[in-house]
Write the structure tokens for this entry.
Amino acid sequence: MAPAAFCQQSGPPDPQNAADENSKRIFWIIPNFRTTPELTNYQPIPASAKFKIATQDAFDRGTFALAALFAGEGQLTNSDPSLGQGVAGYARYFGTSFGDFMIGDYMTEAIFPTILHQDPRFFRRVRGGGWSRFFYSAGQVFLTHGDSGRTQFNFSEVLGNSAAVAISMAYYPDRRDVGDAVTALGTQIGVDMVSNVIKEFAPDIRRKFSRKHKAPDAGPH
């Protein structure tokens, strides 16, 4: 069954779901601008909106924070010896990490979706069992919607990340062979898949912890 069928809403929207979707970041750090509530009465977005989503994701403070974390991990493990150590080395690690995020966002959320007339948004399923929601959200890496509303193979994700990896080989002197490129592409698609799953379930997790936090203490003090 196509993801479009999974997303059909069986009742009126839950106001709490809508409020959760308005959150700009997941767990205060992961940019969440392209997540959209359940798919119903699908309407495509123009190219300008696709570039706006990519810009919001690429230059969000959470993206800078993630780049800083990845830069620190890369320098600690000496993943790219040519980038060096010390402050200057960390700056190079940070620049390459941020470049990965920015180029990937524009390629997969703006440039290729515009060229191929595909929708870069992530549509939450919300309803259904946990496993069905898990497979649906993970599957949006490979299936997306065209501007026509039809379910299509997500060429924007695969080709966009392939282009981003190819560009990154220009600023990663230690990663310039085919094996490195294939590994980087697989890693990026895997990261995007995990990100989709987090976006699907994060509002549920927030609500669960929010209810626990607000619940009154039981029993005598």
User: Anything to note?
Assistant: Residues 178-214 form the longest helix (37 residues).
